[in-house]
Design brief:
This is Carrier domain-containing protein. This protein is mainly α and 108 residues long. 46% of the residues lie in helices and 4% in strands.
């Protein structure tokens, strides 16, 4: 499980640096406070949620979003570990493709 958490930590740092353009000068250890230490405000938190869904392909149900989850890097990683992956786009595309029907087709 630890490798999974470390992968999430690395992916989260990449999102914060590349998408939110945060200059992160410290390791993202569990006690790092997202608002106070990283200077992430409420608008940036909303953006972070969108980027997590897009980049990490994790589904974030609105009813499960709690401010406590965004207090520290550790609490955010705990929250992310509980999320389900978003279903692959390829699967959704396959379901929407028309299925050829053989009804009424006669071989000649």
């Amino acid at each position: 499980m630890m490798a999974c958490r470390n992968e999430l930590r690395s992916a989260l740092q990449a999102v914060m640096e590349n998408r939110l353009k945060l200059p992160i000068a410290m390791p993202l250890e569990d006690p790092v406070r997202i608002n106070e230490d990283l200077r992430v405000d409420s608008i940036m938190l909303l953006q972070l949620l969108v980027f997590i869904e897009q980049d990490l392909r994790l589904s974030i149900p609105e009813e499960e979003v709690d401010a406590k989850a965004f207090a520290t890097i550790g609490s955010l990683l705990d929250f992310l570990e509980r999320l389900a992956p978003i279903e692959g786009q390829r699967d959704a595309d396959a379901l929407s493709e028309p299925v050829p029907s053989r009804i009424g087709v006669t071989e000649g």
